[in-house]
Design the sequence.
């Protein structure tokens, strides 16, 4: 045994290697040399975290070459001649250290006769190593991350991942995500993602984990919410990946709604137990399909060998990098066996290559080995092993794995021809729904009558029995249809959910879903665009709109002359003028028309005086005729002439229409109690300043006004945000109390359904005015990507079709109302007539009777005085016989 620096060259028969294998290190490999026979130089980075067990290397090589004596290189054996405990550094330099500190020593090893190299590389050494191999025509077989190189002497066992990653991102329709990468793995995947992002308008935030400190980790994940980036792609090797996942768990970012896509080929090698428990969605790639025949058989043999050699050590399934190592050794074994069968001379006689020469002298037979390696094709642990002309893996398949709360499942596969092919069937979706009943879900809600209320009972209640209301029964119906267990939890801050403008964090029930503290929200939660960006909604279970609540005004007391209300003041004035005008016209036409003059009928025996004709339509009779026609009572005189009859006819038609219209409105005005509302619409609110108005703080109504581009609503928002004192209220109950205390000086803007409910509650002193300002709906919310979304949506549609939703609303709004029937809240209420409604008619009657008596007295006195003058007697003496 010769000691060269710290690298041993050992020369003993293959049997010695068999004997020494169990005695020496499993994670270090040096070179064994046999006279006139092939050599392999495995170069390993001792600092590598790839998880390689070189027991794989040894067992595969021995399995493939156990029938050969000395035709192929076996393994390097390290022997510890010192009596102290040996360390790794006593026997081997890492390839990184050799290349960086002394390239000449590596070059020296090349010149001593190396047929092929198997090992890993780092980003800082890959170019130098591949340059050596290209210059000397020595093949380098590596399971390391793929690099973009045209060097035909580098065979890359690990398949390229970038195209598969792009396909999965497109499958999930990710438009905005964070990309965490490890620069030591190279930047080819990142470059592909960024190029695709530019084409498809993706928003990608790239973060180099190598330059991220402990504090940066914290701020990095805290900014996820601010940037709305709940999809995170992690492109790191296993050790750094596990560290990042640990940070994610520590920061609590592994809850429902988060989606992590791991750019690794060993999804099954990662411990994701904490993510499964918390409900995060994790997607990744699996190169080795352990359920296939070949991997299953090899794993069983592997397990048996390890149990025999290390019976006290628990067996752990090798990682995908070990599978790549296993297939890599088989690639070399298959290639050398092929060369041997073809009787191609690859002996090291003559020119062995010289990298110290200028220019470097390549090994003559290196091209034969390179061709043999590239032509290898077989089914191995990592599937189909085949290389293209560039030395890259081709015709391989990557399995796409997804992990949710219900476990791990394969959702599809990717290959170069078909790209990503989803394999999740409808039956698998049904199975996912079936698994819902194996877990108790947290249903967040809010105390808001009549949706959720505390039961008023003297008996102590627990769990969901503590509450009652519309949403309580709705949650029970949905759970019954979907088939899961649930627990109602009241949101701690008592808010529906809005994004804080400074911290960019969500509060209320939306925050509970976003941050994974709840699974479902069953509450009067309005479906809005900003909420839909971070959570999913079902179909609306209730339609509504923003409405105006005011204090119910006092009923207007009927006036003395309320019987005049059916017609406007202007109409009454026009009727009076029409009456006078018709009377005057009738008088005039009667005077001018010769047919209106006639002789008086005389008693028998009396002669008719000449030119003694009379006309009945004097001015007073004309007024009397018009009044009688207007009152539809008629008169003892009527026009004789055609012109007079035309005047009478059009007047009768006029009075017919006016009296009919008056009579039609009179019943409504006398039997309906009217309330005079100071406002009737949002426009009325916007153009006045006497009545203040506001909304719920941190809710969809406030967000509606803040985002509206309609002029009226913009004006209202400008007023509300600058009003002092603040017109916003923390709860709907506080808004209702403020309306009642304000004596009509505050209007509250809220959802119409809640407005209608409050209107039905005692003391019945609020009312809804005007129509709805918009149209929207309440929906049941779930976190993004939750498996509950589909089943809950179907349950809502089914309840709607069955009429259950309408029955629930009728029950909690009107059947339990305290202010009468469903229509009792209207502003016009029909009731029986009272004396105050018709008092004016009695006043006119009394006034008319009094006026008649006064006129009669005046006429009597006037007549008596006239007679006394004619008879030349005292007036009082004339009154006595008259009385």
Sequence:
């Amino acid at each position: 045994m010769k000691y060269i620096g710290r690298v041993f060259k050992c020369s003993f028969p293959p049997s010695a290697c068999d004997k020494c294998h169990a005695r020496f290190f499993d994670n270090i490999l040096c070179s064994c040399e046999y006279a006139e026979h092939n050599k392999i130089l495995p170069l390993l980075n001792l600092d590598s975290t790839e998880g390689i067990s070189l027991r794989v290397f040894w067992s595969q090589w021995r399995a493939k070459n156990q029938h050969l004596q000395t035709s192929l290189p076996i393994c390097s054996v390290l022997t510890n001649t010192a009596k102290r405990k040996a360390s790794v550094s006593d026997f081997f330099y890492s390839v990184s250290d050799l290349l960086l500190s002394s390239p000449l020593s590596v070059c020296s090893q090349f010149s001593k006769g190396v047929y092929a190299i198997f090992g890993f590389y780092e980003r800082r050494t890959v170019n130098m190593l591949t340059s050596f191999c290209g210059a000397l025509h020595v093949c380098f077989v590596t399971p390391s991350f793929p690099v973009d190189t045209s060097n035909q002497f580098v065979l890359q066992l690990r398949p390229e991942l970038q195209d598969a990653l792009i396909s999965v991102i497109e499958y999930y329709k990710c438009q905005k995500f964070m990309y965490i990468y490890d620069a030591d793995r190279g930047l080819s995947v990142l470059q592909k993602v960024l190029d695709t992002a530019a084409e498809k308008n993706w928003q990608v935030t790239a973060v180099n984990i190598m330059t991220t400190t402990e504090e940066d980790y914290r701020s990095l994940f805290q900014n996820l919410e601010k940037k709305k980036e709940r999809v995170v792609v992690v492109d790191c090797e296993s050790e750094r990946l596990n560290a990042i996942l640990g940070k994610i768990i520590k920061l609590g970012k592994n809850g429902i709604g988060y989606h992590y896509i791991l750019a690794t080929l060993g999804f099954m090698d990662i411990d994701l137990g904490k993510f499964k428990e918390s409900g995060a969605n994790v997607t990744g790639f699996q190169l080795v399909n352990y359920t296939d025949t070949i991997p299953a058989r090899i794993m069983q043999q592997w397990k048996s060998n390890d149990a025999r050699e290390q019976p006290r050590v628990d067996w752990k399934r090798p990682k995908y990098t070990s599978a790549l190592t296993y297939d890599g050794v088989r690639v070399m074994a298959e290639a050398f066996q092929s060369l041997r069968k073809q009787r191609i001379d690859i002996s090291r006689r003559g020119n062995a290559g010289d990298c110290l020469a200028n220019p470097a002298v390549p090994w003559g037979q290196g091209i034969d080995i390179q061709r043999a390696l590239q032509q290898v094709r077989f089914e191995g642990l990592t599937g189909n092993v085949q290389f293209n002309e560039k030395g890259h893996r081709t015709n391989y398949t990557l399995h796409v794995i997804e992990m949710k709360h219900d476990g791990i499942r394969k959702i599809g596969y990717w290959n170069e021809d078909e790209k990503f092919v989803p394999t999740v069937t409808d039956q698998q979706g049904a199975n996912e729904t079936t698994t819902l009943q194996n877990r108790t879900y947290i249903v967040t809600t809010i105390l808001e009558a009549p949706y959720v209320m505390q039961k008023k009972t003297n008996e102590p209640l627990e769990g969901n029995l503590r509450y009652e209301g519309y949403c309580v029964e709705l949650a029970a119906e949905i759970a019954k249809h979907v088939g899961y267990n649930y627990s109602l939890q009241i949101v701690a801050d008592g808010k529906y959910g809005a994004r804080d403008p400074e911290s960019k964090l969500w509060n209320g029930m939306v925050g509970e879903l976003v941050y994974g503290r709840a699974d479902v929200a069953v509450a009067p939660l309005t479906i809005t665009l900003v909420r839909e960006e971070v959570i999913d909604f079902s179909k609306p279970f209730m339609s509504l709109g923003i409405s105006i609540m005011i204090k119910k005004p006092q009923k207007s007391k009927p006036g003395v002359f309320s019987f005049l209300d059916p017609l406007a003041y202007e109409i009454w004035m026009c009727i009076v003028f029409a009456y006078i005008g018709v009377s005057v016209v009738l008088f005039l036409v009667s005077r001018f028309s010769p047919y209106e003059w006639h002789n008086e009928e005389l008693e028998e025996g009396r002669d008719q005086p000449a030119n003694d004709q009379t006309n009945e339509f004097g001015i007073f009779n004309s007024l009397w005729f018009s009044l009688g026609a207007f009152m539809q009572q008629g008169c003892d005189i009527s026009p004789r002439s055609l012109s007079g009859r035309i005047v009478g006819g059009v007047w009768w038609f006029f009075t017919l229409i006016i009296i009919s219209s008056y009579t039609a409105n009179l019943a409504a005005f006398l039997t309906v109690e009217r309330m005079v509302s100071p406002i009737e619409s949002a426009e009325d609110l916007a153009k006045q300043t006497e009545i203040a108005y506001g909304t719920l703080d941190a809710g969809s109504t406030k967000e509606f006004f803040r985002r509206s581009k309609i002029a009226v609503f913009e004006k209202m928002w400008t007023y509300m945000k600058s009003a002092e004192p603040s017109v916003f209220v923390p709860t709907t109950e506080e808004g209702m109390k403020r309306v009642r205390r304000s004596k009509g000086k505050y209007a509250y803007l809220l959802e119409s359904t809640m407005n209608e409910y409050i209107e039905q509650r005692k003391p019945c002193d609020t009312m809804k005015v005007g129509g709805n300002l918009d149209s929207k709906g309440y929906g049941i919310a779930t976190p993004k990507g939750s498996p509950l979304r589909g089943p809950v949506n179907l349950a809502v549609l089914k309840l709607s079709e069955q009429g259950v939703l309408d029955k629930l609303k009728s029950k909690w709004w009107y059947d339990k109302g305290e202010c009468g029937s469903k229509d009792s809240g209207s502003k016009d209420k029909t009731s029986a007539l009272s004396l105050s409604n018709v008092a004016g008619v009695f006043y006119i009657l009394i006034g008319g009777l009094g006026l008649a008596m006064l006129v009669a007295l005046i006429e009597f006195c006037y007549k008596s005085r006239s007679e006394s003058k004619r008879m030349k007697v005292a007036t009082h003496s004339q009154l006595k016989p008259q009385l």
